[in-house]
Amino acid sequence: MKRAFLILLLTASSVLAWADHITGGEMFYTHVGANTYNVTLKLFMRCNSGRNFPDPAVMSIFDKTTNQRFEDISVRISNRETISLTNNDPCITNPPEVCYDVAYYNFTVSLPGSPAGYIIASEVNYRIRGINNLAAGNQVGATYTCDIPGIADASNNSARFSGSDLVMVCADNYFSYSFAAKDADNDNLIYSFCSAYNSTTGGVNGVPAGNPPYSSVPYAYADFTESAPLGSKVHIDPSTGLISGVAPAAGIYVVTVCVSEIRDGDIIAVQRKDLQINITDCSIAAANLEDDYMLCGTTRSIVIDNRATSPLIVSYEWLVFDPAGTAIFTATTPSLSYTFPVNGTYNVQLIVNKGQPCTDTARTKVYVYPGLVPDFNATGVCINNPTVFRDQSTVVSGSIALWAWDFGEPSVFNDASNQRHPVYKYPFTGDKYIRLIVTTTDGCRDTVEKKITMIDKPPITLAFKDTLICRNDQLPLQATGTGIFTWSPGSFMSATNISNPVVSPPVSTLYYVELNTDGCINKDSVQVRVVDQVTLIPMNDTTICSGDTIQLRINSNGLKYAWTPAAQLFDPLVQNPRAVTPATTSYAVTATIGGCSATAAINVRAVPYPVARASADTTVCYNDAAFLTAITDGNSWSWSPASYLSNAGALNPVASPPRTTAFVFSAYENTRGCPKPGRDTVLVTVLPKIIPFAGNDTSVITGQPLQLQATGGVKYNWSPPYSLSATNISNPVATIKEPSENIVYKVDVYNRIGCYDSAFVSVKVYSSVPTIFVPSAFTPNNDGKNDLLIPVLAGMKQMVSFNIYNRWGQLVFSTSAQGHGWDGRINGQFQSTNTYVWMVNAIDYLGKHYSGKGMVTLVR
């Protein structure tokens, strides 16, 4: 049993049901005699969408010669039906529900003869929302049309699409769906994707359509276009109307297919079907093969895959039959890999899940006739002129029986032919991608594509448009392009039919060139001016400062120039070069036009800059002064910046900068001819301010080593030297053997150039063993006296902790930093008079642990 392959069209998700409008449509007609046509408009809508078909709908008829309105006809719904797929197939995972309301509008119209024919159009309300291959934004309308040809083919019956309207596509799975049409006149039919039409009336039902041409809906061009509405992996067969490939992600996609009716090599009408395909997250357990496979090139080997993918497929059986119908090969692999022994038309059969649920069978033909090479050439690249295409395909087996041309003109639909050597006139310029499909008498088919570029006139490139020559000179004119050249006037010219003739006119002459490329003609011209001498007027002699750059200038009609001395010039071959002049120089120039030349000279006098020599850079201490000096042969001078100088106009000012500053000395001499100053610079580096530090005041026990530590400089000197291990280092050790109320040590701190400042440290010396003194009371009243409770360390190297507790044993203050104390506040609140317990832990200078505790009274 071959299961029907279903592709779900024309629906939107239930979430968007409130916005559902029309989900697709088409228009077709039958000729019933005497330029009279029975026309049908067919519209689709999702079942139970809550929307209504237009009733009546307006059919607008336009003459294609002028696109002017001929008639508007109001048509009521003639018939309605509901179509659906009600039985869920157990071999389809996640099958959707498929149900549509269909409305038919039938009417008959008689039309007078028209050379170009007629377009019948009907605009309807908005399409459904949320279409994935359209640009996000507002709702989009829809216009449905049919095409009635002119007088010569007025008895035409339109092609009518014959495929099912109940179809389904599974996301990211291979699918195929036929847009095939039938034609009662047996015209040749060519299929293509084309633009879905927008509406012109803003989505209002029951009003006439706007005049053609109709605009395209806004495609999401990053991934989808009118020629690729389902993405790059889905294609349409131009000969059969079969669309196939790997489906994009789940969603709703508008797809429009145009079928061109070709009669006697000409397209007489184009009919359209517009559908919105709902792609769902489903898969089908099926055997799905292409209609045929072509081995028409250089091999007899093939690999065939099942194009349907589903987790329900568990087994494969492949059979290959020779042209006589005898099975010659079997396989049970997911893919068939086989090399055919001889030429012929073979049959291949695939059965999936044989003898199990969801079994399915597919059959296809394989045409094995290697040696077909499709090819063609094209002559004529000018728009509105004939472009001739010649088939140059070759074949080993059989002969070529059918040709299907697509000339690649995107602006029209009639760019196709089934002749062997067709002729086509392109209406617009640009790159055209031509496709030829050839089919042999053995059934082999292959495709070739090429690009040609159409032009309105061939490009001409001239080496120059206007030039000078000297009388009696010979000048080659240089034009490039593809085609036949013709020059005029032909006098004094070596040849008139080449791209690069040589001319020697006695007087100025305007030469014209014409380029003919396959009937396309372009024209251009070259002005050749003839002179008998070269004009050369130099600038006046001048004076500059020695070593400066000057631009030399001349007024000349010369074509070439040569300057000397070349070593002092940036480019000695240009008309107005720049020159570096360290000493007085005479610059000579020769200007030429062919055999004519002229010379001139420009004298440039170089005057030295005024001498300006300033004293060497220097370094000073913070807030110190620097003495600047300068020497010059100028007659005036100045220093800057002036704000930090005692006298900016003196040769030897005193500088008092607050920070490192560059002082510039400028000298002027206004009698020799160099107006620019000579300059020199003195950098006065100001060292940072010295911040001396001798350490915090402290207390020790007699005989205890005390490590002093000074910072802020690069050199130190301590005094008095009493009990110090050294006086010229930053960190001497003091060992004091006698108790003292206060010993003050001074340290002078020097920077790298000898500037200094001083700091002091006080040391109290106790005669007791190492201990910690804590006052019995303190008065935190912010009078500057006894405001903090601070432990005094005597002979201690480190305080581990100093904690204070209230009468309930709660910790109210804690520190391990020497010199820190309690200010009498708990959580930021001042405390009233009360008694507290203190506990201290420390390590003395011998490394022994010390602890103590006591009472202290806070007095307010």
TrEMBL record:
Signal peptide span:
1-19
Q: Which InterPro entries match?
A: Ig-like_fold (IPR013783), PKD/Chitinase_dom (IPR022409), PKD_dom (IPR000601), PKD_dom_sf (IPR035986), T9SS_type_B (IPR026341)
| Pfam families, per the entry | CHU_C
Per UniProt, the keywords (alphabetical) are:
Signal
Q: Where is the PKD domain?
A: 310-368, 397-454
Name recorded for this polypeptide: Gliding motility-associated C-terminal domain-containing protein
Give the organism, scientific name: Terrimonas ginsenosidimutans
